[in-house]
Amino acid sequence: MYLPRDASRTRVREAEHARRNRAEIVRSLSSGEITRRDLFRWGTFTSLGMLAHVNGLSPFASSAFAQDVPTGTPRSPLFGALPFSQPMPRLDLQKPRHLKAVARGAETDVHFPDGMKQPPGHRLSYHTDFTESGGTAFRNPYHNVGPMEGRPPGEYFAHQRWEEYLPEVGYVMTLGRCGTGVKFHPAMPDQGIDQVWSLSPNMRGRCTLPPPLIKLRYGEPALFRLYNRLHPNPTKNGGFGSNSQSTHNHNAHNASGSDGAANTHFYPGQFYDYHWTTTLARADLINQAATDRRASGPAKRGTGLERVPGDFRELQGTLWFHDHRFFYTAENVYKGHVGMLNYYSGPDRGHEGLSDGINLRLPSGTELDWGNIDFDVNLIISDGATDQDGQYFFDIFDTRGFCGDMMLVNFAYKPYFEVLPRKYRFRVLSAGMSRFVELGLLNPQGNPMPFQVIATDGNLLVNPVTVTRLDPMGPGERFDIVVDFSVFQRGSRITMINTLEHANGMKPKGSVSIADALRGVPDDPAVGGVMEFRIVDAVESVDNPGKIHRRGDPDRSRVPGQLTQPIPIVQPIRTRVIEWKGEADVGVGQTGECFPDCGEKEVFPWTVRINGVSQHFLNANRSSLLVPRPGEVEHWTLVNTSGSWSHPVHLHLEEGVTIDRAGGPMTAIERANPRKDVWRLGPDGGTTVNVQVRFGEFGGAYVSHCHNTVHEDFGMLFRFDVLTDPANPENSQVHVNVIPTPKPSPEGVTYVTPEILPEGNPFDPTFNPFPGRPV
């Protein structure tokens, strides 16, 4: 994967030359001068969708100087940066803006504070106003052509249940090009203007690091407005990334128009309004009168509760948001379009000192009424790589997956973090593109130390689980852990370590011993220390800047023996068998249409097959699975048939309960009955997982996909549609049917009529609700 540390200068130059040649091809792809189909025709890609082993192009071709040794990829130069030599940056906490409801005829708008000079939030997109004006008003200020909002027009993408979940707070951010001083370590070079694209509250559009953090509470819906301030020229991308993007809230219960993955990318100069409802799942079925105090959020002021309808067992906690532009997700997320979301509820209040019979008092702090983060810390774990000039680099040509060689925490190279000798909660996100990580903690003597796992993928476990090493984490997975530092003296150092080795992006090669990880693995520089915790006597408060927390201050937090209640496994209305297929299956009964960005028939290496019928890769205009009625329980069998690959499979809109794992035992964490939205399928953990899912609340188009985002971008994704209940007057009556597919362009959005595949459609007479049994 990467050249050895002692590689000769000649071999490094050869590999760097091949990398620059590939970057030139990326620039031509970005400008539209060539297509992916051209690369197949020219032999640049093999029939399996992989880069051909051509010297001077492929990082895996035989070296001209040593024919029996693959060239690999040059390692990222560190410019003298040492591990654990910079403080870890906390995520950039965003300030909510309180919105005011204002009637406008039959509609209700929400207005931002006067000084912000923002257009009001509409139920309908401003694209609708642009269309009704004949294109004379509400135009894109960048080029005065097309609408100023990228959200598609009309009722299909109007905000569902707008009045019921009217936004009370707003967040305005920009996706922009690099400002000065954006770097991964003080010793490393500044990144070029288009090497990193990240989110910032700066309306001038200059990106900053670290990524943002937004705190939301149940009972307080939000409007998230994102401006695209990237360059209109798609070739101004630093070698990778698309300037049209879409933001996915992973994995809140939001309507499809605000899910960020319904082919709703938008362009430079436009903004997009996302309606984040903070809806608790099963709001239409369970606890409809909101009488259960556990189903609640913190009150606006004080330490009380605001009750909400829904099932308290499905309260979410640790989420994140990231780009979901079809065929460019990996490049755009890697480039910096990422942030984290903390959801706060009655049981998970973010106030460790409050004892009211509902609050769990998990480590957090006491300075704020809710949402304290002094002792509740977000960690975005990712892997990056640079070229020999120190500029951020991504290789789109390895369709098996991309693994970087620099471990980053909150986009900082191997930092340290100062902690008091007390309990801390860490919300750990695995945010690499293809790399799985296996994280553990080592005490000052280099021995594994125990810690407690309290949540996974944003949901509390029924009971905490004590481990010394986390389960392997695929991209998109989260674990919330509690670490007790109280036994350590000032100056002690605790190391977070990754013990999972990769030889390439297809899957983990395997776990290594702690001793080997500490020494370093020659073929995978990302194995070893990730960050360091340092015990100190005093730290400044984040929640109340200027206040100093000191050793000896009372630790009011606790981790109770039961955190929530389990959701039982019940008899399903129907089952689905979803196979995730790879290179060996290419061309076998495979459809060849893709949308968007594919004008010709192409072959991609990663496909999906549902209920044993046709296999296909992504087409946003093809509904592969239809959920006809909200509230119905389904069992899905997720099967990895792609050989010796690993796939972290992600489900949008809903989470599910893991029933069992065939071909491999469930881990102690999995047996703790967590709800999850990412399931790891692979030879190391069993190729088949059975899960229980139940959809509800909102209708429209969603997706499920492999969260190895390189596999996703090369076709391993399918669309599914959820229909609303026409008997519920609160629901959108537009979404009682499958909606058309948006087709965005800088000039505006049009619609195309989707296809519904019979194998996923319960209304089709050939549909089998229980695959494996006779129809």
From TrEMBL:
Q: Which InterPro entries match?
A: Cu-oxidase_C, Cu-oxidase_fam, Cu_oxidase_Cu_BS, Cupredoxin
Q: Which Pfam families match?
A: Cu-oxidase_2
Q: Which PANTHER family match?
A: BILIRUBIN OXIDASE, CUPREDOXIN SUPERFAMILY PROTEIN
Alphabetized UniProt keyword annotations: Capsid protein, Metal-binding, Virion
Q: Which residues lie in coiled coils?
A: none
- Organism the protein comes from: Palleronia marisminoris
Plastocyanin-like domain location, by residue? 620-723
Task: State the protein's name.
Answer: Spore coat protein A
Query: Gene name, please?
Result: cotA
Region feature Disordered, mapped onto this chain: 235-260, 544-563
- Source organism's superkingdom? Bacteria
State the Gene Ontology terms under molecular function: copper ion binding; oxidoreductase activity
Could you tell me where the Polar residues compositional bias lies?
A: 242-257
